[in-house]
Amino acid sequence: MPSSTTRTRSVRRSRTRRAGESAYGALLVVRTVLMGLLALLLLAAGVWTSWNTAQYAMLVKAQERGTMTVARCEDDRCTGPYVPTEGDGKTRSKVSIVEAAAPAEGERVEVTVEPGTAQAVRTGPAGILHAWVPFAGALLLAALVVAGGMRLRRTAWVMGLCGAVLLGAAFAALQGF
Fold first, then answer.
1. How far is 154 from 133, CA to CA, in rounded Å?
2. 63-122 domain in CATH 3.30.1890?
3. d(CA 147, CA 155)
């Protein structure tokens, strides 16, 4: 009985094909790194933008804390008189707050005044959540980059859901739910 020997032959690929496969792999790595850097840039910009307001809403040692009565709203800002309750503040006839964070006209809201300005920032849970809205938007945008450019769909879903929950919580807190 003749024995059959089956040898597996390795297939040799040409240098050109191997170089093309290596270049394609390198392009995939470069794409993933660039998309990761873009996602990090979006998140850093969101944190930076949010922190400019959040530091006043969150920090306990704010210099001027008090209440503001919303008198008038126009051009995305609401104005009204300010009465200090804590800190080194003084009564002011007019401070302004972002209209999205302000309650209805005639209502009072707890605020802190940014040092050296007449701009107020809402404090408490609603003010803190409102301050982090730019970060929530950055999470949503970064989720798209992570899903599309990096192909990390589960991570993108988590980021997007966190951003959506933060936006929803800010909306609910500002509406008084």
1. 23
2. no
3. 8
Q: Are 146 and 152 in contact (CB under 8 A)?
A: yes
C-alpha torsion 88→93→95→96, nearest 10: 160
pTM across the whole model: 0.82
More confident residue, 1 or 163: 163
Residues of 40-70 as b/e, b for ≥16 C-beta within 10 angstroms? eebbebbeebbeebbebbbeeebbbbbbbeb
Residue of 41, 49, 39, 42 lying closest to 130 (CA atoms): 49
98 close to 110: Cβ distance less than 8 angstroms: no
Are the beta carbons of 80 and 94 closer than 8 angstroms? yes
Residue type, 68: M
CA distances from 92 to 6, 62, 65, 66 (A): 94, 17, 12, 11
Amino acid symbol at 129: L
The tokens describing 138, both together, are 């950055």
User: Residue 147: CB partners within 8 Å, gap ≥ 6?
Assistant: 153, 156, 157, 160
CA distance 82 to 120: 9
pLDDT by residue (tens digit) across 30-60?
999 999 999 999 999 999 999 998 998 888 6
